[in-house]
Description:
The chain is α+β, with helices and mostly antiparallel strands. The protein contains two helices and five strands. Strand 4 (108-113) and strand 5 form a beta hairpin.
Amino acid sequence: MTLNAGKRVALVSLVAIGTISAAFFGVAAMASDDAPTVGRVPEAAFRSDGSIDRTQVPDYIPALDRRGDIVGYVARDEVMPQEGLEPPGELAPQDKPETVYDKDLKTVVGHMYPARGFVPVGTDPRDVPPISVSISEGAAK
């Protein structure tokens, strides 16, 4: 799966912060044939062509608030659809929120909204200020 620039920035930001937070908070993957896997996206999942090997991505990855604190977990299948189910070069549609689950992976604690980030259950996303992102294509001449 290949990512467009905006979605790559969002996923890389989520992964980068998740990596730091996961290391700090000691998030470990649950290993069991029956239990879903939980943890950060491993560095080895990022291919040199910019795509991601989703077979190396845990079933649930940390969702972070604006401070970088883990607020729950998002399902891999919600943010990274299976190969062949999405248009080439695309991730899941980013105009809809992704569900954020508590550590039991069942209780909904909020949603990740495009351009807003984590919004807890009971909070109107319109009350959360948008996140501003700027992308630089290199040094100005």
